Amino acid sequence: MITLTNIEKSYDLGETKVKALDGVSLTINQSEYIAIMGPSGSGKSTLLNVLGILDRPTGGQYLLEGHDITSLPDKEQARIRNRHFGFVFQSFNLFPELSALENVMLPMSYAGVSFAKRKAKAGELLDWIGLDHRLHHLPTMMSGGEQQRVAIARALANDPDLLLADEPTGNLPSEKGEEILETLEDLNRQGVTIVMVTHNDDQGSRAGRVIQIQDGRVLAAEAVA
Amino acid sequence: MKIAEDYKMSFRAIRRRPVESLLLILGIALGIGATAAGISMVSNSIQERNTLLSSTQYKEITVQVRENADEMELPARLSEDGEDVILSYTDLDAKYDVSEIEYAYLADRTEFRLISNEFGPGREMPQGSDEEETAVQFEQPPEAPEVDGPQPVLDEVTGLRASPEYFSAWNLHTANGSLFTQQEMENDDPVMVVGSILGETLFEDGVSLDRELAVFQTIYTIVGVLEPTGTSIDETAIVPAQAVDTARLQDFGRMMQNGGATLHFAVYDSDRLDEAKAQLTTWFEQQYGEGQVVVSVPREEVEAAQDRTSRLISVILFLAVAGLLIASVNVSNILLGRAMRRRRNVGILKALGATVRSVFGLFFLEAFLIGAAGAAVGTGISLLISTLMSGSGEGGAIASLLLFAGIFGAWIVTTALTLFPALQASRIPAAQALRYE
Questions:
Q1: Where are the strands (E) in B35-142, listed by range?
Q2: Is the residue at B60 inside a domain?
Q3: A57 — contact with chain B (CB < 8 Å)?
Q4: pLDDT for B387
Q5: Of A15, A128, B132, B327, which is most buried with the most CB atoms under 10 A?
Q6: Contacting residues of A for B362, CB less than 8 Å apart
Q7: Do B393 and B256 fall within a single domain?
Q8: Facing B12 at nearest CB: one of A46, A97, A106
Q9: Pairing of strands A193-197, B212-215
């Protein structure tokens, strides 16, 4: 599905050049459940951003379904993010001005889905995730766990091939975190590829494969027994 | 495609910071209001100037024996080598020697003290008047004529002594009766033509035509009532100017407060006023010698006064536009700050599939809505200023089309300046925006 070859990402900090990713090569197959682990500042989030085309690598090759997408124009990259990827963030990142339903509808609006269809689909997703009673609530009126479930519903709005989750349980109590993990595992069983950044070894051990990263380099990409 | 969500997000973003949004709207409104009012003031001033200068009197050159009519004592005389200079009807012949002259007439403003049988000599003065003062100002002739029949209800009217050409020059026509003729003027016939309002108010029953009116020693017959003009002529009584008759002029001198024989020459084209003035000056100098008559162009003084007003209004407009620009830059700054505070939202939008253009559109929509609200309030302010200016009688009524053109123009300026923050917001890289806390 995705092949990264010798990906580099560096930042210029004045006269200093910091390499966030240093020759990362890896392959992500369809329906995999991958955990990216490593210490703080190791480059996990940068790798996730590069995978989600939120950040352009400064070197290397990124193939999505065999197509090099690193040099695509902004509009085309936005279309790929919208149709193929779903994002779940540690701090939920819902729009506070929009209700749960409207937050979930938003990615579909960029895909050109009609208002009626996106409203129906958003309702179904929130119902599936157990928030049918919270459709018209603003994020500020919901708990952290509920907000993260809305964020997952939003990530699933356009039926993505790949769900990128950056420490999705990081801001949640363990009980609620467990619910989120179960939801992600459920999605993976349904065929959605999951790439999750986590610090938590237990969470990592529940993935199909763990990619250990340090100083911008992949130390190991091992399948979990 | 996503209009509904965009509008909701923009509206709610505006609502989330009500005080900030209100200040933004108010800033824009004041800028737009002031600019629209300023533009309209300039336009109004130009329009008034054009209307005023298109009036017959501003195509004219006047010739008097003295520059300041207030200082004149009648009969109007100046001496040269022991001879009196009296301008008269015959001096209108100058028009035949100056090609630019369209018409010429003689006209002098005056006040007519009407003698009613009720207020004649030996009768009581009107109640509340200062007897001594009135006696000085309006010394009654020893043998005031009496008029049989209806008496005027007014005791004083604005008058004009004019030659018959005055009527054609000012395009005046009678509604009833007729105008006086050159023959009547030369015969010194005591006839009078009155304006439409004066015709209705001079006598109690509202009828003036063919009525007689005593003015000092003369009994005039009203031979015509003019059609309404909407000007001061409607309240004026016009009698024939005098031909050269010094004895009569001395007699009239007692009646004429500002008098003096003033000749009026109007040109075909106001651009040729200077040339015509030079030719007339030469003509009168040949007749009476250098410096004996004053040839003046009333338009010059009006133009000078209006130029001063225009400059003042231009300064006001400049300040208003400067205010608008300052307000717009301020709005732009606040919107930029607003956008930067929400840069994380930009990252999320991009993660969800928004293009640079979509993000720009969203932020611009928010600025546009604030601008629209400001324009709406600014329109109210402009209309308020317009109404106040009209009510104050300062001639500041704002033409509605121009008012809205001004508002629209000012709104465009404001909106243009809000492009910048929207553009800046849309260009924030997604990953960098997402890292923002």
A1: 60-64, 79-80, 83-84, 101-115
A2: no
A3: no
A4: 74
A5: B327
A6: none
A7: no
A8: A97
A9: unpaired
- Residue written as token pair 């003096």: B260
Answer yes or no: do B167 and B77 share one domain: yes
B14: distance to nearest CA of chain A, Å? 10
Whether residue B298 lies inside any domain: the answer is: no
pTM metric for this prediction: 0.64
CB contact under 8 A, A110 and B16: no
Q: How many domains does chain B have?
A: 2
| Joined tokens for residue B433 | 């925006």
Angle among Cα B307, B312, B317 to the nearest 5 degrees reads: 120
Answer yes or no: do B325 and B288 share one domain. no
Is residue B297 domain-resident? Answer: no
- Which of these ranges, B29-33, B58-62, B160-164, B245-249, has the smallest mean pLDDT? B245-249
Predicted ipTM > 0.95: no
The domain boundary residue, chosen from B271, B292, B313: B292
Q: What is the pLDDT of residue A224?
A: 66
Q: Is B371 exposed, middle or buried (0-12, 13-18, 19+ CB in 10 A)?
A: buried
Residues B152 and B28 in one domain: no
- A46, A81, A110: residue with CB nearest B2: A110
CA distance B63 to B91: 10
* A67 interfaces chain B, CB cutoff of 8 Å: no
Considering the domain boundaries, does residue B90 fall inside one? yes
Residues B386 and B414 in one domain: yes
For residues B180 and B237, is the Cβ–Cβ distance under 8 A? no
- Residue B74 pLDDT exceeds 60: no
Distance from CA of B327 to the nearest CA of A (A): 27
Range of the domain at B142: 66-292
Q: Decide if B8 and A98 are in contact by the 8 Å CB cutoff.
A: yes
Residues B245 and B181 in one domain: yes
**Where does a domain end: B238, B262, B292?**
B292
Per residue, the 3-state secondary structure of A77-140, as one string, reads: HHHHHHHHEEEECCCCCCCCCCCHHHHHHHHHHHCCCCHHHHHHHHHHHHHHCCCHHHCCCCHH
A197 touches chain B (CB under 8 A): no
Most confident by average pLDDT, A57-61, B7-11, B47-51, B301-305:
A57-61
Helix (H) or strand (E) holding B176: strand B174-177
A87 neighbors A134 (Cβ within 8 angstroms): no
**Do B348 and A81 lie within an 8 Å CB cutoff?**
no
Does any CB of chain B come closer than 8 Å to the CB of residue A138?
Answer: no
Contact B9 A154 (CB under 8 A): no
Secondary structure of residue B85 in the 3-state scheme: coil
List of domains in chain A? 2-223 (3.40.50.300)
- Pairs from B305-310 (Cβ < 8 Å, separation ≥ 24): B306/B45, B306/B49, B306/B52, B309/B45, B310/B42, B310/B45, B310/B46, B310/B49
Helices A174-189 + A144-155 axis angle, to 10: 20
Q: Do residue B268 and residue B325 come from a single domain? A: no
Please indicate, yes or no, whether residues B110 and B14 belong to a single structural domain of this protein. no
Which of A49, A78, A105 is closest, CB to CB, to B353?
A78
